[in-house]
Protein: Alpha/beta hydrolase
Amino acid sequence: MESVVLRASYKNAMLTLLLAVTGATSAVAADDLSRPVQAGPTPGHMIESTPLAPALGLPGQGAAYHILYTSTDGVTGRGTVTVSGAVYYPSGRPPAGGWPVVAWAHGTVGNADRCAPSVNVHTPRDTAYLSAWLKRGFAIVATDYEGLSTPGPHPYLNTRVEAFGVLDSVRAALGSLPDLTDRVMIVGQSQGGAAAFASAGYAPLYAPEINIRGTVATGVPYMSPAVMQTLPAVAMASTFRPDPLATYVLLMAAGEAGIDPHFRPEDVFTPQAMPFYRMVDTTCVFQLEDAVNRAGLTTAAILRSQAVRLLAPVFQAMMYPTLKLSRPVFIGTGSEDRDVATSGQLLLVHDACAAGSKVEAHLYKGLDHSRTVLASLPDSAIFTQKVMTDQTVSSICSPVPQ
Structure:
């Protein structure tokens, strides 16, 4: 989709159709942090840690574990659910006090249990990216998020669900695994970029005991109440092929159906979309996207006229609890991002800076959603060194292509 202020072509309108702008600084939903979270018994408790299958590991790692832990149910904000994930240690002897931690928030994999990262081989890009963090001397604690490979639905793009999963994975690892120190970087990409930003926002009230040093995020989605006002017109204008936004909307709707028994997909999608909607619970994102693209489906073709109104709870759940983060954040954006609109990411940078966050933003010329991940590594290494050693981070709120 596109912004009416920051020009972006409709081919940029993928996942974050949701990321459009309306011309005013976007408001955010702050109500989640204005009331206490009613947590169930001991969120962040390690239920089980078992050696990870060697085929699922990372180059250059030491020990690695598959984990199950408790987390506050992010859908209701109370009670606990079981969440899965993985932990990867660097090779060699730990430093005095233990390895610092990267809390890794993964990008879109799909809603089906079999798509969970902890039970799959990493993509070449993520393998290279995570291995770079191991070489920097960080252990990696990687949540699957609520509902992926564990009971219950996966509420796709629900930022509270994602944040609780990230923060409780760190609690569980620090509380039960050896040779880790409470010096934490939150790191994420795409869906995980939103999870990382949200985790940094929720942390001061939800997990104040975690010593978060900073956040690194690439391809970060951004939703606000102002954006929601433009969604009907934009969704119906999204007709470019291939149109990945069509795949993302299917995932969003299926996630909502899993938590709302009254949700009727037939009221949201046209008949030609329904066979693809029924694939979501058993198919991972690359296979689903391939099927949607081969069928030539666009967002405008799959949505009924009332779809955006019926999906409003999904969009509301995408909002961040606050834009004022207590620790610095690095945001990397590709100038040619066609999965999460570049304009929306730059708006997030602008609004977070205006809210008082320390934001170091980088805009990578000619790079798309995926290529930005590895391209950002040198800059994020400098940023990480600064925040880990309490050096000053200078805000970059209007990045120029580099």
Observations:
- Confidence is low (pLDDT under 50) at residues 1-40.
- DSSP finds 15 helices and ten strands in the chain.
- The first helix runs from residue 124 to 135.
- The CA atoms of residues 6 and 343 lie 6 Å apart.
